[in-house]
């Protein structure tokens, strides 16, 4: 311990992922000019390794290869080695991932790419084992072969890399074709619904066999589809698909029944055995989706799951200053004396552990029964473990159990002769005790980087849940996080967002020496968050900031020739391509969300050019939306909002008045995908009245809080009772 450990340049970085590699024998550089200059000066190839701190195979490759002295020597002698955290630099990740996917037919992390000194990729892959195996070439062999090629065939390599770049440019272009207009929403919605319906798993919900991802974008699409087709069999099916999926996920092992929140994805068809990392962007989107499920169905079950997610985030992913951390890792030490980490160790249980923690006999049960028996029956716990060896290739979960709700409360209660209410209390007691026992285990690594985009998604989760569940504390938490963004991830002098900041020493918030500027997704998710926060809090300051950011987004990222927005800015010479994402995946793509943002912005500002821009984005993606809308369910959803025109729900009233609050509660209780809410408080000097002169003509009827439904700034007759308003909505 007294010997200072060897450290490379990553020791000066702030990203937890880069810091994990700071003591490797590899002479890592961060992405930047110093590394590029060295490659040019020494005429060396660059080895680029991209990952993130909660990526299981990234840890494996580090243990096997990057900590190996001999492999480190080969890397240092022949290459300039660069390490990138994809969550800090999604732009760099996207350029080279596009290359890896195009040339190898697959992609993923860790991503390993070899570049010429001028940053052009010529060969790439993902994880490499250290030594040659029967089916795979080892990392050492690949390194030596590539170094050899560079010595022998430099010119051919350079020529080839130029060709590859031109092909990539051609492949990855999304632009409007001729005079294309936005695709018709009826056709896009019908096709998307059909494609989702065909891939739906009738038994367990979700949209693939395995692995199964939560994909909130699919569920939000189905809710909107239902709202527009409530009386048809297709509409009913859309709602049933979404609610059943959300139920099965909440019962599954992908949901942490002891520590709350959701894991990343399920490795099987039953939502049972997950990859155990927990990502902020999943929690934010799922909190909003479960709130919406409650709003539509009135079933408290969904409200409870939303509260459970927000409890987890408030407790485990929240910085004192108000921001949200990025993720919790899947791997951890099983005990305080363990030498190596195992996946899921923090979350899994043996039957013995549970019996020992819950030995109490249960009064009034039909036979001699302990609390442990009841708990194990309800959560599918088996003496020999409940994880199939097929789903546990590294035998890390042998003999362990991942809790999964196997039957309803009523069924478990009947089996033991108990009242469902009493069983609920017993299970709660069981979860409480397991939670206390789990608190003694070493915690998984926490990625304390705070990203503007993901914080935006989480603010939306808190704001929407607060509005729908009528929980003021959630709205306040969202406002606290928005104030954090304003303070730490926004530069008032330039009006621009920053990508990331970090938890520093003694709970301070730190910035890297050269701050990373915000990307398109940072603007889009933060703007969406501010609109959601305005609707939940009716504080006009958030609206004003959202519209400023929308102007800045237009300036930095809009493509005036091909339409839609580029993912990154124009002035970074180290980026070979400016790309536009074309898939709504674990997170919606920024261009999808921006369509709805632009329409909302137009409603709050009266600027019709934003409606025009929304149409131009849809036009640029028109072909994809017509053919495979299942790749863009969030944009398909936005297509209908564009064609149906947003309705402005204006409540004229005193913000503190009981009658106003009652009207607002009514608005928040109804799922209506194409409405925006605004409060006309009568203060004609306020931001909204300055933006929208027509508000001045709306008045309170008989001095009571009054609602108007307006479209294109023409309004319905006034209503003053929540019942009438409900009918209108």
TrEMBL record:
Transmembrane segments: none annotated. One of its GO terms (biological process) is carbohydrate metabolic process. InterPro entries: 6-hairpin_glycosidase_sf (IPR008928), 6hp_glycosidase-like_sf (IPR012341), Ssp411 (IPR024705), Ssp411-like_TRX (IPR004879), Thioredoxin-like_sf (IPR036249). Residues 8-168 form the Spermatogenesis-associated protein 20-like TRX domain. Gene3D superfamilies: 1.50.10.10, Glutaredoxin. This is SPT20 protein. It comes from Chloroceryle aenea (American pygmy kingfisher). The lineage of its organism: Eukaryota, Metazoa, Chordata, Craniata, Vertebrata.
